[in-house]
Specification:
Elements lengths: L6 E10 L2 E5 L5 E5 L12 E8 L5 E4 L10 E9 L3 E5 L6 E4 L12 E8 L5 E4 L18 E9 L3 E6 L3 E6 L12 E9 L5 E4 L7 H17 L3 E2 L7 H8 L3 H13 L3 E4 L2 E4 L1
Length: 277
């Protein structure tokens, strides 16, 4: 069954001079233009297409990929604004309409914004920047330590809000971030904890480092010391981005590794750095 606003695998019925005719199921025969045909496409083959509705409400298949499917969130550029609303480029021929009623704040041409794709009452695809209408503090289906996809949203006093798997809110604490993040960025993260009120705390590193991983980081620190005449200008007070640039770990993990090496009397902790013993 063909689904509007999603990627569908459709069967090729015939290939002609103007393109390929696809089996659109309940929507009948759909034309995929010649310029979008994958090479060697033949009748009977399946082709993956994103399907949207044109101005007349008819389904249109395209091999171009939309930035988001129905129910998903994406960082989009506003390319036009008129009396009806705004229009955003989302990677397919028809721009995504964002009605004024679904705008959290007034949009202007050239501005980027987070948009959730939905279907209106007529089945047409549209966008909303009122994310709180769609995204909830709902941790159902999540567990501590689970790897998740994040889209960075607004900065708060505590850190950055993020959309988890396109469906619920989480929080990345600023004092635990070891690298810069920006609004609209898509990154992998982990569920650090689920609070009693159902809100989700996030981390960019997997909670609970194994002994093997910690040994690997300790070894990397010792090797870096050996390669720099036994001294590194990094301490447990160094900025998280500097630590991540050097070893690819968070400040918390780096401090744990330093503590282990110090207890083993393999390093000295000095005011301006660490020294190999």
């Amino acid at each position: 069954m063909l689904t509007i606003g999603q990627v569908n695998s459709l069967t090729v019925l015939e290939v002609g001079a103007h393109g390929a005719i696809l089996d659109g199921g309940q929507w009948g025969r759909l034309l995929l233009p010649l310029l979008q045909l994958p090479s060697g496409l033949e009748p009977g083959a399946a082709v993956e297409v994103f399907v949207y509705l044109d101005a007349e409400g008819d389904p249109v298949p395209t091999t171009q990929r939309a930035a988001a499917a129905v129910g998903e969130v994406a960082w989009l550029e506003v390319v036009d604004v008129n009396r009806l609303g705004a229009f955003a480029d989302w990677g397919i021929p028809k721009d995504l309409f964002i009605p004024y009623a679904e705008q959290q704040y007034k949009l202007s041409k050239g501005r980027h914004t987070l948009v959730r794709v939905y279907q209106d009452k007529q089945g047409r695809l549209a966008g909303s920047t009122r994310l709180d209408h769609w995204i909830r503090d709902d941790a159902s289906g999540l567990r501590r330590g689970q790897k998740v996809s994040l889209i960075i949203a607004d900065k708060t006093e505590l850190g950055f809000k993020a959309v988890i798997n396109h469906r619920c809110w989480g929080l990345l604490y600023g004092n635990e971030l070891y690298r810069r993040v920006r609004k609209g960025q898509v990154i992998d993260g982990y569920v650090r904890q689920i609070r009693e009120d159902g809100k989700v705390d996030l981390s960019l590193t997997q909670p609970g480092f194994s002994e093997d991983k910690m040994n690997g980081i300790s070894t990397a620190i010792l090797e870096a010391l050996d390669a720099n005449d036994g001294f590194l200008a990094l301490t447990d007070k160094s900025p998280p981005p500097e630590i991540y640039a050097a070893f690819g770990v968070s400040k918390k993990v780096f401090k744990q590794a330093l503590g282990a090496l110090y207890k083993q009397r393999r390093i000295q902790l000095e005011k301006d750095g660490i020294r190999r013993v």
